[in-house]
Amino acid sequence: MITIQDLKKQYKDAVVLDVASLEIPKAECFGLVGNNGAGKTTLFRIILDLVRATSGRVLLDETDVSKSEDWKRRVGAYLDEHMLLSYLTADEYFETLRKIYNLSEEDLEEHLNKFEELFNDEIRGKKKYLRDLSKGNTKKVGIAAAMMGNPEVVLLDEPFENLDPSSQVRLKKLILQEKERSQITFLISSHDLNHVTDLCDRIVLLEKGKVIKDLHDKSSMVEELNTYFGT
Ligand SMILES: Nc1ncnc2c1ncn2[C@@H]1O[C@H](COP(=O)(O)OP(=O)(O)OP(=O)(O)O)[C@@H](O)[C@H]1O
To answer: Any stretches that span the bilayer, and where are they (predicted)?
Structure first.
């Protein structure tokens, strides 16, 4: 369970995030939407303790994420390419993570096999550094890395952006399978309302840093969001 309490982030006098209370239960697929600058990435960064909140706190179960490092083993995330080691090839990067996560070669193979369709023969066995991959293929590496090591929580910022249409469908299938297979709590931010509503049990809409809708009803969330975004 992720608990957000009185969370505020301010840059000089601009309040960019102001979330009084939010609870994300275990195994929920939590979608986060909002216009550019609404605060989605800031919220994810604070949850991951990459940015310190001005006030308030984020708890992972009982642990304040800004006060301990232990929870990091339980959380996977891909926000952007800065999270990768760009001077490695994809194979070298996965091998490095395998050692960090203490996985066997078989475990790694089993994990990466789930991504075979998504990788579309463009990632593994290539002599390209991550910095030279296309944007979409870079994202695929980041997502596979975020889901490595049996995390309890996975945060993905704009996972569908830059993916070709078939890859978007394959990624959606993969996340749905993982949701079924494990008890992963997914936090997914997206501008793609169709994908995020297909995937998520709940969608929170941020506007200027505040939660203005918290939608749980699958049948009405698409319509509510289309009305808000004028789509
Ligand atoms: N380091 C910073 N200094 C000043 N303002 C910042 C900083 N980082 C983020 N902001 C501001 O915080 C606000 C929220 O940004 P954030 O990136 O969280 O939005 P977002 O919802 O992820 O947007 P997008 O959909 O465009 O990715 C924006 O106004 C942004 O300019």
So the answer is: none
Report the pLDDT value the prediction gives residue 116, as an integer from 0 to 100: 97
**Which domain covers residue 101, as residue numbers?**
2-229
Residue nearest to atom 7 of ligand 1 (CA): 11
36 within ligand 1 shell (Cβ under 6 A): yes
By three-state DSSP, how is residue 193 classified?
helix
> Over the chain, what is the mean pLDDT?
96
Res 78 pLDDT > 90: yes
Percentage with pLDDT > 90 across the chain: 96
Domain CATH for 201: 3.40.50.300
pLDDT at 219 (0 to 100)? 86
Number of domains in the chain: 1
Confidence (pLDDT) at 36:
97
Number of H helices, E strands in the chain: 8, 10
- 11 Cβ closer than 6 Å to some ligand 1 atom: yes
Q: Ligand 1 mean position to 33 CA, how many Å? A: 14
pTM of the model: 0.96
Token pair belonging to 68: 């301990």
Instruction: Report the separation in Å between the CA atom of 37 and the middle of ligand 1, taken as the mean of its atom positions.
Output: 5
Q: CA 197 to CA 219: how far, in whole Å? A: 10
User: For a pocket test of ligand 1, which of 9, 11, 43 has the largest count of ligand atoms closer than 8 A to its C-beta?
Assistant: 11
Q: Which of 102, 177, 172, 93 is nearest to 138 (CA)?
A: 93
